[in-house]
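Quick one: structure for this chain?
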Amino acid sequence: MSVIAGSCGYIAPEYAYTLRVNEKSDIYSFGVVILELVTGRPPIDPEFGEKDLVKWVCTTLDQSGTEHVIDPKLDPRYMDEVSKVLDVGLRCTNSLPAARPSMRRVVKMLQETGMGSQPKASKSDGKLSRFYNEVVSDQASLV
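Got it. Here's what it folds into:
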């Protein structure tokens, strides 16, 4: 029970009435992780109000568009690829378990996003990842 209690935001909606975990509920949880990576937000956040990350993403996409969902720290050169990954996350978190893809299909869709291809502009600038822009503060601390 402690594992489930610590999993808020990752549990598939159907668990509430089936109390069963299966491949489709694992796919849902994986989709939440994808949404976390793309949005830079946790699965549960007071900013969401009564919503979780999945509902927040869906609502924000409908009302404001993709640019308001994707983490601004992600490198803008990869927005097409990131948008495709966002779509994979949304497919995985479909409210209907039967409509969620298999994990084999998820892997194939992620491979097809092009995220594994070479960067458009290659330079070694000390970034943690070629997809992530580190925010650097111009305020220096004085010792």
